[in-house]
Design brief:
Strand content: 15-25%
CATH topology of the largest domain: FAD/NAD(P)-binding domain
Helix content: 25-40%
Bound molecules: flavin-adenine dinucleotide
Number of domains: 2
CATH architecture of the largest domain: 3-Layer(bba) Sandwich
Structural class: alpha/beta
Distance between the termini: 48 Å
């Protein structure tokens, strides 16, 4: 019987393992709870209606269609039976393995306030992105419908909690949408009055970047009409707004970009984990005491040169390549690569439509040129010629015309809101699809 490799999670790490095992004589099963591989770095562009969902996600089955050695299963893994060497899926389905790769990423963390999620969705999946897009666009519609000034102001207040790259990228585009793109399309409300707020508990935005770039980004956002509030923890989050210190801020659209927690892999494996739930692995990415199991990407805690490897796409891909090389070496009798070493590819974030910050070691870049570099890098990493072409054309069109091409309200909005008018509710109902 051929060696059976089960890969749980077809994100950056899991898919890279499957690609890295091409030509090895083994049977590979890829299991994911979704039918698509998602390019998360551009999720915020779907959430802000710059790109369509199909521009940044591809069916896993079609990505692996030419690989006769790979079987793809759609299912949510519930656990791992390490004694029997089986992965557990719902309805008693079990998939046996000789080598197991767990690369199940992260989910949102609300620091013990899980009930905030309904009012402040995060951005992790395509469903999250379309929820955020719907709420953003509905808020403008409801402001246009409302005859009450306080309610209109609350509808036109957008609060993003957390000032890492995702938070910064979101407010940049929301401000652009409200202040520049939409004003000509609304008659009863003035979308230029929209308040776009970036709220951060820590002392500065983009803490992973140097202080100069962080200050540049903060100024660039302020120039674009974003209110940046640092050192301001959110203490409550309701369907009508948020509490900052002692003050209540009426805001009907709140987006969470403040924290993540690893997938429950540590519970499946009964493994040691760090404070964020990441499984602590050996320096070759295997589980301590069980070399047949690899844990990779965002769900793994691994250090390289004394530093925790960050939860970014290049790190997940590098880990995927390393695990594939190790498994290949084991199966062919070659020398395994040993210790994993992370090659830092730098930090990138956009600040609105035509500015970005880039940091690579001591090298720093900012402004329009950095934005072009950011754009080219992201186009390069998209899968398939079709996506690259469509995304490039969409960006070019939106850059030249100041239009967002995917401004569609889809599906019913369930979030309760005290100020929501009956007519505005009708907008949501009519747009259900
Ligand atoms: C909004 C956002 C923006 C980002 N921007 C950037 C950026 O600009 N640059 C950058 O480098 N990184 C960025 N990242 C981080 C980057 O996307 C992650 O580091 C990377 O996706 C990690 O890859 P992974 O393979 O570990 O996990 P993921 O890519 O998250 O893949 C995990 C896979 O596991 C599947 N899965 C999870 N649980 C189960 C289960 N129980 N059963 C079956 N399948 C399961 C999921 O469906 C998913 O397909 C961003 C992330 C987000 C959310």
């Amino acid at each position: 019987m051929k060696h059976r490799i089960v890969i749980v999670g077809a994100g950056f790490a899991g898919l890279t393992v499957a690609h890295g095992l091409r030509g090895v004589d083994c049977d590979i099963t890829v299991i994911d709870q979704r039918n698509h591989h998602l390019f998360q770095p551009l999720l915020y562009q779907v959430a802000t209606s710059m790109l369509a969902t199909s521009d940044i996600a591809w069916p896993i089955r079609s990505l692996l269609r030419d690989r006769k050695d790979v079987t793809t299963l759609l299912g949510k893994v519930d656990g791992v039976d390490r004694d029997a060497r089986e992965v557990i899926l719902p309805h008693g389905i079990r998939v046996p393995y000789d080598s197991l790769v767990i690369a199940t990423g992260v989910r949102h963390a609300y620091f013990g306030k899980d009930h905030w999620e309904e009012n402040a969705p995060g951005l992790k999946t395509l469903e999250d992105a379309t929820t955020v897009r719907r709420r953003l666009l509905l808020a403008f519609e409801r402001a246009e419908m409302s005859e009450d000034e306080a309610e209109r102001d609350a509808q036109l207040t957008f609060a993003v909690i957390g000032a890492g790259p995702t938070g910064v990228e979101l407010v940049g585009i929301i401000a652009e949408l409200a202040h520049r793109i939409l004003p000509g399309e609304f008659r009863r409300s003035d979308t230029r009055r929209a308040k776009v707020m970036l709220i951060e508990a820590g002392p500065r935005i983009l803490p992973a970047f140097g202080e100069k770039l962080s200050a540049y980004a903060s100024n660039a956002l302020t120039r674009r009409g974003v209110e940046v509030k640092t050192g301001t923890p959110v203490t409550e989050c309701t369907s009508d707004g948020i509490v900052l210190g002692d003050a209540f801020l009426p805001a009907r659209t709140v987006i969470w970009a403040a924290g993540v927690q690893a997938s429950p892999a540590k519970d499946w494996l009964h493994a040691k984990a760090d404070h964020a739930g990441r499984v602590i692995v050996n320096d070759d990415l295997t589980l301590p005491g069980d070399p047949s199991i690899f844990v990779l990407g965002d769900t793994a805690h691994v250090e390289s040169d004394g530093q925790l490897v960050p939860g970014v796409a290049p790190a997940a891909k590098q880990q995927g390549r390393h695990a594939a090389r190790t498994i290949r070496a084991r199966l062919t009798g070659a020398k395994p690569p040993g210790r994993f070493r992370y090659r830092n590819m730098g930090n990138l974030a956009t600040v609105g439509r035509n500015a970005a910050v880039i940091e690579y070691g001591r090298f720093q870049m900012k402004g329009l040129l950095a934005w072009w570099v950011w754009g080219i890098a992201h186009i390069y990493f998209l899968i398939g010629a079709r996506s690259r072409l469509f995304v490039s054309l969409n960006w070019l069109w939106s850059f030249l015309s100041r239009q967002n091409s995917a401004r569609l309200i889809t599906q019913k909005e369930n979030k309760p809101s005290s100020g929501q008018s009956k007519e505005a509710d009708g907008v949501a109902r009519r747009d259900r699809s």
